[in-house]
Amino acid sequence: CIRDSLEEAAVLTQQALDLSRERGPVLSALVAMAHVGDPEETAELMNQLSARYPQDTLIQSVELPLRRAALALRAGEFEEVLSLLTSVEPYERNFLDSIQYRGQALLGLGRAEEAALEFERLAASRSTWAFAPILRIATLWVGRAHAAAGNVSPARIAYQEFLEIMKGADEGVPLIEEARAEYAALMEATG
Question: Please, which pLDDT band fits residue 3 given cuts at 50, 70 and 90?
Fold first, then answer.
């Protein structure tokens, strides 16, 4: 169950923070917290990390802007997401979630064509990061963006590819069920 997984992630994140407040564990904890944690607690931890490492380029220009962008995305602050990600652009080849967040923000702003290009760029990263989990989902986002833009043929192809990739997954995974429903609606609407 997704809820159990989120609760477990929260417990494990807190356990990691209880063991150490050093750079590595805090950065790892922030990845989870930005997506499922308390936004105020997450922001406070980011501020502490920023104050502790004011000259650290990776923290100041990449890690913290990425986590802040994830929080902004959760809050539906799409323009803020795009603004926060500007400092990450030179490093995004190694931080693929920046491309995902940008695509999701563009989609949230109704800029579906631009979002599709971002998600296609993310999906094309398979040659570099073959085993990155985010790349399995990138194809779904390509389909969603093309569907939102009214580009039926590429949307259909992307959904089919995603469902093929996920055909061996456990039954009842919410993301896969959503994709199946979206694909069925697309097929029904376009005949």
Answer: very low
